[in-house]
Amino acid sequence: MDDPFDLQGRVVWVTGSSRGIGRGIAEHLAGAGAQVVVHARSEEALAAVVAATGGLPVVADVRDEAALAAAVERIAERHGHLDGLVANVGGAAYGPLAELDADRFRRQLDLNLTGAFAAARSAYPLLRESRGAVVLVSATGASQPTPLFGAYGAAKAGVEQLTRSLAAEWGPEVRVNCVSPGLILTEGSLKAVFRGDEALVARAGRTTAVGRVGRPADVAYACHYLLSPAAAFVSGSVLTVDGGPTEGPTQRILRALEQG
């Protein structure tokens, strides 16, 4: 029986793959036999991941339709087909919503939501030909209150609804799913969230059911599954990758009462 998780020879484009979660996804998929296409806004930023994966580098701002079209043309010229897309580009703007002006809010929507749509739309003709798969990247903040990250949470909630709409419209030729990571340890989060303190990383890990903070590889395995034939009957779904919660609303209320 053929391995339903086999990605040998499949061409997969991972946007935002010069560092962090995106690089982890690209390196994992390359190790699993996929021919990866790596992406950033500059060629220089891609040097390390190209060296690690042997992937084809493409440069584009995901908010620029012409640049995305040129990237897809380069993929077609090199590989002749495209089997998968992981639309990973995203970013969060920190700040209270009462102080967040409309332009900054709009930029969050453009980067996280419009960028995901534009990347998927640009890849669609090639994916339709290959009967391929798309994985959009959300965040657990899409379904939970995200104080100080409200614009980011709203944008990611849009990504999850976009997943369902694309799956409904593009099937059966193209499957579309979404991964929703919780807090993932990367170079960026170690500096920005944990202030470079591994003790804080361990403390945060104790808030998950599995007892640790996530790693890029955890998200990569989820993407691998959704891109593979093993997920042939899965479309329009959101797969949460957050280590599991250890408490719900009632537990939070009881804890607050205990703390006075």
Task: Give the tags.
260 residues; 7 strands; alpha/beta; Rossmann fold
Instruction: Report how far the terminal alpha carbons are from each other.
Output: 60 Å
* Count of the domains: 1
The best one-word shape is globular
Number of strands: 7
> What is the strand arrangement across the widest sheet?
3-2-1-4-5-6-7
Count of alpha/pi helices: 9
Rg for CA atoms? 18 Å
Mean pLDDT: 95
SS content category: alpha/beta
What is the second-level CATH architecture? 3-Layer(aba) Sandwich
| Largest beta-sheet characterization | 7 strands, parallel
For the record, the CATH class is Alpha Beta
Helix content: 40-55%
Which segments are poorly predicted (pLDDT under 50) over 5 or more consecutive residues?
none
Helix-strand topology string = EHEHEHEHEHEHHHEH
CATH topology name? Rossmann fold
CATH superfamily: NAD(P)-binding Rossmann-like Domain
The proportion of strand residues reads 5-15%
Structural description of this entry:
- The chain has helices at 20-31, 47-53, 65-79, 102-130, 150-170, 187-192, 198-205, 216-227, 249-258, and strands at 11-14, 35-40, 56-59, 84-87, 133-137, 175-181, 238-241.
- It has 260 residues and is of the alpha/beta class.
- It has one domain (11-258): NAD(P)-binding Rossmann-like Domain (Rossmann fold, 3-Layer(aba) Sandwich).
- The chain is built from nine helices and seven strands; from the N terminus they run βαβαβαβαβαβαααβα.
- It has a seven-stranded parallel β-sheet, sandwiched between helices.
- Helix 4 (102-130) runs parallel beside helix 5.
